[in-house]
Amino acid sequence: MAAPSLDILKEDQVRINKYSYLNMQNHEVQRELKINEEKVNALQDALDELEIAMESEVRIMIGESFVLCSEENALSRLEKLRDVKKEELNRLRAQAEISQKEMNALKTYLYAKFGSSINLEED
Amino acid sequence: MSQTIPLSQPSSNPRKIPSVVFFEHVGELVAQYGADPLLKQLNELYSKYKFMEAQLQRSKQVLRAKLPDITNALEMVEYLQSTQEEVKVDFQLSDCVWTKAEIPQTPSVALWLGANVMLEYPHEEAIDLLRKNLGNAESALESTNEDLKFLKEQITTCEVNLSRVYNYTVISRQGK
């Protein structure tokens, strides 16, 4: 029976810590991604509805109230906002991918070194 | 009388949170201090870190809730500054009650500063103040996140230390 290795190198501890931190960060990023995706979809829907409805004046949400403004103003504001949110979405997705890759690499290394003495799964 | 085992040390963290000492060889530690006091003190240290983590998570929630309020206010003031004519809005009077208002061109806005205090500012100053508050809130959030990252590292190291000491005691008992 192989005894679990009790002596751990400093660099392995650093790796375990890194994995733990990346995991925590990944949860945050996933949460933000979800919120951001919903926002982008909502803005896109709003833009689509605006184009269909032939209104000259519409109300758009600024802060917590609805402001009456012309269709062109509303259109340009919404488009700008949607583009900003889309960029954020892409940035978040890229970040999630990078941390996922790093986590997988760390996982492979740690499982190879410690085998069943370490558990890196979500419970 | 049990001695205090050096399990943590001062760190370079800006908020002076101590960092956990990392042990290469658990056996020496158990031989020097004894398994039970070691486990007890490690557990105490661990719960302290966990408590701090919970505290920081709570303050992070508070900060995250503040951010949309400030951005909403900023959005509105910037809009008011940009229009040349009066603004017609539907705003919320209370839950489920909305009403119309006409906001004439005004040179200033009133900002709620908290503690039942409201101050009137010209648009430019209001925008500056709100941007400054937003900046402060964002940097507070960032330093909280940094601390949480640091804490997570210490907690993980602590957990690994705990399990190593425990495993060592189990194995040495089996060996006997």
Automatic annotation (TrEMBL), chain A:
Listed Pfam families: Prefoldin_2
UniProt KW keywords: Chaperone, Coiled coil
Coiled coil feature spans: 26-109
GO cellular component entries: cytoplasm; prefoldin complex
MF (Gene Ontology): unfolded protein binding
Record GO biological process: protein folding
InterPro entries in alphabetical order: PFD_beta-like (IPR002777), PFDN4 (IPR016661)
Domain of life: Eukaryota
Family: Belongs to the prefoldin subunit beta family.
Protein name in the entry: Prefoldin subunit 4
Species this protein is from: Stentor coeruleus
Species lineage: Eukaryota, Sar, Alveolata, Ciliophora, Postciliodesmatophora
From TrEMBL, chain B:
GO biological process per UniProt: microtubule-based process; protein folding; tubulin complex assembly
Stored InterPro entries: PFD3, Prefoldin, Prefoldin_subunit_alpha
SUPFAM superfamilies for this protein: Prefoldin
MF terms in GO: tubulin binding
Key word Coiled coil present: yes
Coiled-coil regions listed: 127-161
CDD domains on file: Prefoldin_3
Source organism superkingdom: Eukaryota
UniProt xrefs under Pfam families: Prefoldin
Cellular component terms per the entry's GO annotation: cytoplasm; prefoldin complex
Transmembrane parts of this sequence: none
Alphabetical keyword list: Chaperone, Coiled coil
Keyword Chaperone: yes
Record note on quaternary structure: Heterohexamer of two PFD-alpha type and four PFD-beta type subunits.
Family of the protein in this entry: Belongs to the prefoldin subunit alpha family.
Functional summary from the UniProt entry: Binds specifically to cytosolic chaperonin (c-CPN) and transfers target proteins to it. Binds to nascent polypeptide chain and promotes folding in an environment in which there are many competing pathways for nonnative proteins.
PANTHER family assigned: PREFOLDIN SUBUNIT 3 (PTHR12409:SF0)
The protein's name: Prefoldin subunit 3
Annotated organism of origin: Stentor coeruleus
